[in-house]
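This week, think about what follows.
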Amino acid sequence: APAPAPAAGGTPGPAAGGSAPAPNAAPAAPSVPAAAVPAASAEPDEEEAPAYGGAGYSRPAPETPHCVESSIRLPRELAGRLPASVTLRFAVGRDGGASLVQVLGEGVDPRLAEALQSAVRDCHFRPGTDASGKPVRLWVVMPLRFAP
């Protein structure tokens, strides 16, 4: 699999703190769109994301292609110990910011989860819109696959 493109304003390479870019992180299914899913908000002050039914909603998209993949910085001690794939779920707000980032699945190393959550928060997204074109807060599910 080809290496991900560098994030805007930077080049891939070791980051401060002894971490390095994730090796060959890529969307697991680039032809499958990220889907919005029903919300169960863990933060009572935040609005809930609408259920995704495809009824005229457009999905959020990263402003910089492959931003999440190129923003992943892993602790060196995880080299060679990555799972084949993980799935992220996060909300993209009307302002394009990501929040409520979750790494789905069992047995994910907490250091990997932290690196993935940070990568998602570092990216900015074009918000999803409703049928009238108004920006709305939506959940996004993003599968990632790591090359061996």
